[in-house]
Write a structure and sequence with these properties.
two-stranded antiparallel sheet, 2 domains, binds iron/sulfur cluster, globular, 17 helices, 392 residues, alpha+beta
Length: 392
């Protein structure tokens, strides 16, 4: 953290790309045969039981040894983006410390929500959504204040760089996305404080399961690749959050038809280099979802420039849902599936190109790298481990 504090004084020469303009609302009608349920199918009782018996924890607090290995292998994309990330973390901290103006604005929840959405557009967030705070999905080690409403803030990362997955350049796009997301979330926090409400930006890499809130706020649905797929963006986006006591109108989960699109697609399942993505969804912690095999995925993510092949080959993330529905209506097929444009990628560990459905051979030197000390069965932070503090 001390390094980050010093780095915020370093001029940003990273050449980060411009953030694309805010998204236009998705308005296309989803065909009835694609509809399943708004958000994700869930068993509320089971969700409550698992959260009570096995609360969620922040990944790097549970696996501090793995984090050292990941940072060491991520130097190629972390070093060039460090000063920008440090500056953004500084802004998050400043927004945390500033005090709400005395005297609260007297808008109705509807008026206030409208005002907040307009400000989010002005600030340049791709889209925001509002959901109730839910302790089941917030990490107990979080140092960010937890207020009753969550504002989920999305920032689209650069499309061109994203198509270079898997590479350090593409991972830099993700880091720039986080930095822009933090800066803009800090600005939205300050806006609420100027109106007299309390607000608390959440930290980086996160104080909660952000995609839970994204789905709850109607911003997207979970893809089989484990990501939140949003309909508007032909790209990958970063999810940041703030909590607030401002009385806001909650958004609701939406059915964009993405579960059935995934069932017809499965490009991520076919192209994952280590077969870490299951074919079908299963109940996990009370939610019907695709649970990736972390033991196979994480070593590859750590050593192959963040991997993320499952995002590169995702037609929703590349083309956006509008284009997919249009193509499906005309041809009955999912746009791009089976083409090299969508499913092809260069593998950083051997420099070779792999086409649709071809996967590199990933050996034990990667999957069982002795330096990656990682106890997959661990569910809680080991004794004596200090969680990473980004906010306080
Ligand atoms: S990040 Fe790579 S290894 Fe992990 S699930 Fe995606 S494609 Fe597979
Ligand atoms: S690649 Fe296809 S199956 Fe995988 S998440 Fe994207 S749309 Fe769903």
């Amino acid at each position: 953290m001390r390094v980050l504090t010093l780095l915020r004084f370093t001029p940003d020469r990273s050449g980060a790309p411009e953030v694309p303009p805010p998204w236009k609302p998705f308005s296309r009608e989803v065909p009835e045969e694609l509809l399943t349920c708004p958000g994700e199918p869930r068993d509320r009782e089971e969700e409550e039981r698992v959260a009570r018996e096995e609360p969620l924890h922040e990944f790097f607090s549970v696996h501090p040894e793995a984090s050292e290995f990941i940072v060491e292998h991520g130097r190629g994309f972390l070093k060039p983006t460090f000063s920008k990330l440090a500056g953004a973390i500084h802004q998050i901290r400043q927004a945390t410390r500033s005090r709400p103006r005395p005297g609260r604005a007297t808008y109705s929840p509807e008026e206030l929500t409208e005002l907040l959405r307009k400000e989010a557009v002005r600030i340049g967030l791709s889209r925001i959504g509002i959901a109730p705070n839910d302790p089941k999905y917030t990490f107990p080690e979080s140092d960010a204040e937890q207020l009753p409403n969550v504002v989920v803030c999305l920032v689209e990362q650069d499309w061109e760089l994203t198509q270079m997955i898997p590479s350090d350049e593409a991972e830099m796009a993700a880091m720039y996305g986080y930095a822009e997301g933090m800066t803009r979330t800090a600005a939205l926090t300050e806006f609420l404080k100027r109106l007299g409400f309390d607000a608390a930006p959440q930290g980086f890499p996160g104080d909660a399961i952000a995609i839970h809130y994204g789905v709850a706020a109607g911003l997207g649905q979970l893809g089989i690749n484990g990501q939140m797929l949003t309909p508007e963006a032909g790209s990958r986006c970063r999810i940041l959050m703030l909590t607030t006591d401002a009385p806001l109108v909650h958004d609701q989960p939406v059915d964009y038809g993405l579960h059935k699109i995934c069932d017809e697609c499965k490009a991520c399942v076919r192209n994952c280099p280590v077969g870490a993505i299951p074919q079908t969804r299963k109940p996990y912690r009370g939610v019907m979802k695709s649970k990736l095999n972390t033991a196979r995925c994480l070593p590859v993510v750590a050593q192959a420039s963040g991997c993320a092949v499952c995002m590169k080959v995702c037609p929703v993330q590349r083309y956006g849902l509008d284009a997919i529905l249009e193509h499906r209506e005309k041809t009955g097929e999912i746009l791009g599936v089976g083409t090299d444009e969508l499913e092809g990628y260069d593998w950083p560990l051997d420099g070779r190109h792999y086409g649709p459905g071809q996967t590199p051979k990933v050996g034990d030197e990667v999957l069982k790298n002795q330096d990656l000390v990682f106890d997959y069965s661990r569910r809680e932070p080991p004794p004596g481990v200090e969680p990473i503090r980004f906010v306080g």
